[in-house]
Amino acid sequence: MTVRVLILPGLFDSGPQHWQTQWEQRFSGLHRVEQSDWQTPTCADWVLRLHDKVMASQRPVVLVGHSLACSLIAQWAQQYPEAAQRVRGALLVAPSDTEADSYPEGTTGFTPMLMNPLPFNAITVASTDDPYVSVTRASAFSEAWGSELVWLHKAGHINDQSGYGAWSEGVDLLFKLTGDPQFQHG
């Protein structure tokens, strides 16, 4: 059975050059979870929207979160442990530290950062120079979540501003979680 891949952008959504948008356009079976407020989000609203999308899926789900969406996934998994059993895995890219001074103001309910094991396979991808999370905190998140940790050297926030458009290495990581041949490199 194929999976349903849910694309979960972070704060301000993912623009047309962002790897999440490019993947969504390139591959079938990827669906963006649209939030009602990308500028000043409330965690409870984002969690409920994600929950609705997971529960509506007739197939197992793989979550692809960027930035604030990594926190969203951890919050949702804690609040809905039974529903989390529907998730085959999560790709957690550039997790933002919502407790850091560098994190933009305007979000509500995304702190504290949850440090509980995720009940599904996960891969965290972090950059050595992300302005929104330190190397120490990214390591701590990955360890707490029980995820595999993949480091990218000086990759910024792993977004379009950092030069990550189609991001083929990320597609390879997605294949590890889905097993779906459409994501197999080569």
TrEMBL record:
Pfam family, one: Ser_hydrolase
GO terms for MF: hydrolase activity
Keywords: Hydrolase
InterPro entries the record matches: AB_hydrolase_fold (IPR029058), RBBP9/YdeN (IPR010662)
Protein name as catalogued: Alpha/beta hydrolase
Species the sequence originates in: Pseudomonas taetrolens
